[in-house]
Amino acid sequence: MQELVNYSIGQNSLGGLYFHSVLLFYKPTMESDVFAERFVRARKASGLSMQALAGQVGLSANAIKKYEHGDAMPSSANLLKLAKALNVHSEYFFRPSKIEVTGIEYRKRASTPQKTLKKIHSDVMDQAERWYELLDIYPDSAKPIPTFDLPAGLPQLIADYDQLDDVADCVRMHWGLGLNPIHDMVDTFESRGLMVILTHVDTDNKFDGLAGTIKDQPLIVISGAQAGDRQRFTLAHELGHLVLNGRLAGALDEEKACHRFAGAFLLPRSASIQELGEKRSNLEDRELYMLKHEYGISMAAIAIRAMQCDIITKAYYERVVRTFSTKGWRTEEPGDQYPAERTMLFEQLVYRALSEEYIGESKAAELMGISLGRFHKERKLEITRDSASTC
Q1: pTM, two decimal places
Q2: Quick check: is 221 in a domain?
Q3: What total of structural domains would you count in the chain?
Q4: Would 62 be classed as within a structural domain?
Q5: Is 321 part of a structural domain of the chain?
Q6: Pairing of strands 22-26, 99-100
Q7: Cα 365 from Cα 371, distance rounded (Å)
């Protein structure tokens, strides 16, 4: 039998992870099966072929194949080389639980390559697993995330797209947001019981997001590489899926309804009229740009809201679309981008668990995906993170 790393494998009985009517669950398994499944996931996430990975670590492609099929285990030395090449900690390969996935669906562009989807899938599953592990550390009497709930006054049946303006207002009022701009969407969502995961996989803007549930908590995943206004619209769109589930009349398209909800959530009807006036025959480009940076919604989406609120006519809106197309603004809007969203909740909860002595420094560093040395420096504020949080 080949040498194994010194890592104990336990069993864990945790809750279920649910994405778009797809059940994901933890189950105990043999060490070799755990390693093989996680090794395959890490390699696919890296974008390396078996041959390319073998070349990087000085092994044969046949050895890599045996690892992936569970027919062999690497030595400690080779394990460290593989972990370094795949940009993961060696402990990653031996986590005591795994997520088994079938039929997961992502909101994506039709041209998204399968290779990119595999990377996103691996990244999201890795972060979701660490969320599972972190939340399970907290005792039932000290659960750190509030329960997500919907307003009591939502209509049972939504038969018209125009009703979605009132639905968005209802959610805002339930959350105590009023009708003002929402300056931090991620923090707003997290403080109301919604988990947010940012995936930093390079998708060339071909992935928007997904919504689901993790341990009975709604979860939204967005791309960390997109501009802030696009991230915010995706967050609001995915919230729409949660709010409108089972409420739409058969004649309404769910994606179109979630788009309408997202625009109304970010820029309510009353705010649109207050900012633009009740009736307009013309909109200035600079005016749209300023509103974009006030409300965190794209110039194009503001124009759509103006039409939906009857501030401008459909004919004038179509002129705006043609102008945007001519100037190339439908691909990239002019001026500074709206700042990207970020999530700090996962990292905050790791430090909270450390402070309460639910975990030690080694486990905290592992959960955050950084070395123990770097964790020590961050904890002492000797260095700070320049990029978004791990989760």
Answers
A1: 0.78
A2: no
A3: 1
A4: yes
A5: no
A6: antiparallel
A7: 6
Which domain range does residue 98 map to?
16-105
Comparing CA positions, the residue from 331, 265, 264 lying closest to residue 300 is 331
What number of other Cβ atoms are within 10 A of residue 229's Cβ?
A: 25
Tell me, what CATH number does 25's domain have?
1.10.260.40
Q: pLDDT, tens digit, for every residue of 273-291?
A: 999 999 999 999 999 999 9
- DSSP, collapsed to helix, strand or coil, labels residue 226 as coil
Determine the Cα–Cα distance for residues 308 and 305; give it in Å rounded to an integer. Answer: 5
Pairing state between β 217-223 and 195-199: parallel
**Quick check: helix, strand or coil at residue 234?**
helix
DSSP state of 13: -
**pLDDT tens digits for 102-144?**
334 455 555 667 777 777 777 877 888 888 889 889 998 888 9
CA-wise closest residue to 36 among 7, 77, 80, 66:
66
Distance CA 225, CA 36 (A): 30
Q: How far apart are CA 20 and CA 221, in angstroms?
A: 12
Decide: residue 93, CB within 10 A, 0-12 exposed, 13-18 middle, 19+ buried. Answer: buried
* 338 assigned to some structural domain: no
